[in-house]
Amino acid sequence: MDAITHQAIDVSARHSYAQLLAFLASRAGGDVAGAEDALSEAFAAALQQWPSQGVPDKPEAWLLQTARRRLIDSQRRTQRHARHMDALTHALAAAQAAVNSGHDFPDERLKLLFVCAHPAIDPAARTPLMLQTVLGLEAERIAPAFLTSAATMSQRLVRAKTKIRDAGIPFAVPESSEWPERQSFVLDAIYAAFTTGWEDTLSTAAGTHDLAEEAIWLARVLVHLLPEEPEALGLLALLLHCHARRAARLSAGRYVPLLEQDPALWDHALITQAETVLTLAARRQSTGRFQLEAAVQSVHAQRAHTGETNWQAIARLYEALIRQTPALGARLGHVVAVAKTRGAAAGLAALDDLPTGTLQTHQPYWATRAWLLRELGDIAGARAAYSRAIGLTEDASVRAFLMSQMPP
């Protein structure tokens, strides 16, 4: 396939797939699976025909017409779910008419995101469902990121789509009383997808390397749909700041922690984007968790210009963040900032004040403890903590780094 055709198909998939899917499913009794099947066959046909026949002037219209033909053929072969199939056929006709007339059909992607975050959907399926329906990722590609098999993930997604259809979950932006919980889950889901992919960038797991990029794309979609929402902007800024340092995380196969990274290797164009988005969020004057986390990363990014890290500023930001969320990651970040500003002993005292609930199996806790004990000269304690952290580390490059830090 030539590069131009491949790009055209990719653009259509990126910009049109979720919009087409949301439009069709919302008008077909919530039959997400049926709409997916129709569109999947159309995209498969495009991959076969466009390289030889050329890209149509109106790719979306071509895809809709092809999907409609395939759906009608399917209806003739079977009468299963006839009611939903008829509704989907009518939805395809309406979408094609809108595209043919030159008018954009309504963008229902925000409704689709909120459907995926509906309380009736199994929480374990919500994030994968967003990745599949809004980004078009296959179950085989999603499964490794969630530590499950492709078959299990496929079954989970099928059940979720069946629930949407059979329970009649409405394709609608929820009422104001439901907005905070549902929006919060959408943001958390995108962040979870990014962090999963972020961790996988250090591994060689097939199909997971670009999950972080897919999450960034999803965050961009959300900002496009909710341009006035400060936390959506804050999340995008956070992801861009983190992703800008991707190339600096490994050196000759060795994991390089943030404080040892060479800022020259950072993607400064992405950092500029992140700063612009974070400024837009700040103008909304409604500070939230993701804006604060992005602000922490913004301070780290300033090292590229100053050569130093403003730990006082980071400590204040983490104090504000802890007031917003009790997340262990925020508390550990604050511990490091305390150690950097007030010394390792103060940092260890702050670490010992953390709730003990999940600490015994939390690798970052043991890595932080090991670092603090080594700084304090407690060699035996540091070795024990490093051993615990190493035992809880799955990534080989991180494990090698921790082993190199263990005192003799």
Tell me what the structure shows.
With 408 residues, the protein is mostly helical. It has a domain at 1-107. The chain has helices spanning 3-26, 32-53, 59-77, 82-100, 109-116, 123-135, 139-142, 150-166, 179-200, 211-225, 230-243, 268-283, 289-301, 303-306, 311-324, 328-342, 344-352, 363-375, 379-391, 396-405, and strands spanning 250-251, 254-255. The protein has a two-stranded antiparallel sheet. Helix 1 packs across helix 4 and helix 11 (230-243) packs parallel to helix 13.
List the total number of helices: 20
Number of strands: 2
Q: What fraction strand? A: under 5%
End-to-end Cα distance, whole Å, is 56 Å
What letter string, H or E per element, gives the SSE order? HHHHHHHHHHHEEHHHHHHHHH
What fraction, in percent, of the residue positions are helical? 55-70%
Main sheet strand line-up: 1-2
Low-pLDDT ranges: 204-209
Please tell me how large the radius of gyration is. Answer: 24 Å
Mean pLDDT: 85
Question: Helix/strand/pairing class, anyone?
Answer: mainly alpha
Choose one word for the global shape: elongated
How would a crystallographer describe the biggest sheet? 2 strands, antiparallel
